[in-house]
């Protein structure tokens, strides 16, 4: 994949004016992610919205499930083995949040450097290098490279939006 861009053509527009593209399989939509992962206001309403999303996404009739997940509260108690696996997944999620917080502190240093040296927010070449490298690292460690690239693309997009808030959008053509 060297030399190949992992961006859609809309990526030439600064994040501040384009939002986040859904045209590329490597670029996830923050809008969709926020609506799907937003904290529930009411558990039952959240489950209804999630079920509605799944029915629309998979073109299922009302009352049908997608077969891969529950559309409502589980009717049977969770087996202890499954509960333990889920506990471990939750612990990994906390570690991921810790890593993201560490990354945010480093991005803060990047923002300070860019502000001091009057640099633009987006460095597309660096982003492409990061996506290729994370794909190779994922492959070496037995992870599907597409998953690693999608996650990194989302992280880059999220932190780029924070940089834009701090520094303002890049001038057109950069």
From TrEMBL:
Ranges for region Disordered: 1-22
Keyword line: Isomerase
Domain (Chorismate mutase) ranges: 76-167
Protein name: Chorismate mutase domain-containing protein
Species for this entry: Acidiferrimicrobium australe
């Amino acid at each position: 994949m060297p030399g190949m861009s992992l961006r859609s053509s809309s990526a030439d527009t600064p994040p501040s004016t384009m939002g986040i593209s859904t045209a590329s399989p490597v670029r996830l939509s923050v809008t969709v992610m926020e609506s799907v992962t937003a904290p529930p206001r009411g558990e039952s309403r959240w489950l209804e919205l999630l079920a509605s999303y799944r029915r629309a996404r998979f073109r299922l009739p009302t009352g049908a499930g997608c077969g891969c997940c529950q559309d409502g509260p589980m009717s049977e108690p969770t087996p202890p083995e499954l509960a333990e696996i889920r506990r471990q997944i939750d612990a990994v999620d906390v570690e991921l949040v810790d890593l993201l917080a560490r990354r945010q502190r480093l991005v803060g240093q990047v923002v300070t450097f860019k502000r001091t040296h009057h640099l633009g927010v987006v460095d597309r070449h660096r982003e492409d290098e990061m996506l290729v490298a994370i794909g190779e690292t994922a492959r070496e460690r037995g992870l599907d490279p597409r998953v690693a690239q999608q996650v990194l693309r989302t992280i880059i997009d999220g932190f780029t939006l924070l940089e834009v808030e701090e520094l303002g959008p890049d001038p057109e053509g950069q």
